Amino acid sequence: MSPATVGPSRRRLPTQARSRERVERILDATARLVLTNGVDTLTTRSIAEAAQLPVASLYQYFADKEAVLLALCERDMAEMDDQVATDLAAIEELTVASMIDTAMRAFVKVYHRRPAFMQIWMRGRTNPAIYDYGRHHNRRTAENLLAFGVDAGLLAAGPYDEQQLMTIAELAVEVGDRAFQVAFENDPRGDQFLIDQAIALVTGYLDQIATGR
User: Fold this and answer.
1) How many helices (H) and strands (E) does the chain have?
2) How far apart are CA 78 and CA 98, in angstroms?
């Protein structure tokens, strides 16, 4: 399965190396501030100071702090997509259970590498742009995992039509997303029991469209 792309970025990506480096400094500084002080205390000035850049430089790339948070989510979700694709390609014994376990634990790997993401994502539902981007990303994730499962002969429509099959896949991703939010709500490493339960929940739900292979 190729990485699940989720459409064009909502910001203009810099093409020069210096500009890309500045953007990464801004995003990394924002992530550090989120972990230290939370999302609500962020300002464009505090982000610029943490990135050791003039505020005017930040405004060259981002309209406001919400745009910075969106860009951080875009970056981290793209990393999740790459991790899922890499880990799915390495599965030795492919089953519905191994597919779901591998995909969901790939997300967990990135949550551990990017601990600010989950805080931003839970808080970000008050940011319409982050909310819309996240929902779109979930739909694309569902489409890609469903296509992967169907191509591998693991998933089939059965008594459902194509639209219903897609709805089942989307609901599975949404349920997994929400369960992971609960698992990571009070622990940046995630509650392992809740992570395992989330994976079991999604796997059991998708059994209804499993082929039995």
Assistant:
1) 9, 0
2) 22
Q: ∠ at Cα 172 (92, 34), nearest 5°?
A: 90
pLDDT band at 126 (very low <50, low <70, confident <90, very high): confident
Task: Record the pTM.
Answer: 0.87
Task: State residue 212's pLDDT score.
Answer: 74
| 17-209: CATH topology | Tetracycline Repressor; domain 2 (1.10.357)
Question: How is residue 160 written in tokens?
Answer: 């459902």
* Tens of pLDDT, residues 74-121: 999 999 999 999 999 999 999 999 999 999 999 999 999 999 999 898
Q: Which positions ≥6 away from 187 have C-beta within 8 Å?
A: none
H/E element, 95: none
Long-range CB pairs of 180-186 (<8 Å, 24+ gap) are 180/104, 180/107, 180/108, 180/111, 180/118, 181/118, 181/121, 181/122, 184/111, 184/118, 185/122
Domain ranges of the chain: 17-209
Q: Which two tokens stand for residue 128?
A: 């319409």
